[in-house]
Amino acid sequence: MLAGAYEAGGAACLSVLTDRVFFGGSAEDLQTARSACALPVLRKDFTVSLADVYDARLMGADCVLLIVAALSDGELREFHAAAVGVGLDVLVEIHDESELDRALSVGATLIGVNQRDLVTFEVDTERALRMAAQIPDGVLKVAESGIRGRSDASQLRDAGYHGLLVGETLVRSADPAAAVREMYS
């Protein structure tokens, strides 16, 4: 199971896709991953209603993803407050300066910079580097998407990122535990 391999490799948490339509994930995938290791789990899904926030908690997630580009200011504020209220951490995902301002306006303390454009799906591997210095001290910074290995991971850490959300590179690896370890070296 991937969850155990990631944990053995030194991952700090798991990101589990639960969207069935676009990614073939499920709540059961999250629950299986949760039971396979002791790591905290992010429900990676399109959170578009309050029910999605509460479902994340019921599934056993420790953290929920809020994508600024997919939410109005009111929804972002409401969903963030609800998640915090039920004890979830909140990874607020941004792509640019205006989305960063919106994330900060709701009190986000964990901000992810997604290097993948949600419309074209193209990856801009410089996006996280450009945004790093603009995220205030005291906010945990996570770089997302397009992280291919040790060199990318090192560059992002040097830019001030506290964490990396890596998917495809690890999933496709013949040895996921070794691939995680390599990201830390």
Describe the fold and architecture.
- With 185 residues, the protein is of the alpha/beta class.
- It has one domain: TIM Barrel (Alpha-Beta Barrel), CATH 3.20.20.
- A seven-stranded parallel β-sheet has the order 1-2-3-4-5-6-7.
- Helix 1 runs parallel beside helix 10 and helix 4 runs parallel beside helix 5.
- The two termini are 23 Å apart.
- The mean pLDDT is 95.
Q: Tell me the number of helical segments per DSSP (H or I, 4 or more residues long).
A: 10
Q: Alpha-carbon distance between the termini?
A: 23 Å
User: In percent, how much strand structure appears in the residues?
Assistant: 15-25%
Strand order of the largest sheet: 1-2-3-4-5-6-7
- What structural category do the secondary elements indicate? alpha/beta
Query: What top-tier CATH class fits best?
Result: Alpha Beta
Number of domains: 1
What sequence of helices (H) and strands (E) makes up the elements?
HEHHEHEHEHEHEHEHH
Shape: globular
Poorly predicted spans: none
Question: What do the pLDDT scores average to?
Answer: 95
Query: What is the CATH third-level topology name?
Result: TIM Barrel
Number of strands: 7
- Taking Cα atoms only, what radius of gyration do you get, to the nearest Å? 16 Å
In the CATH hierarchy, what is the superfamily? Answer: Aldolase class I
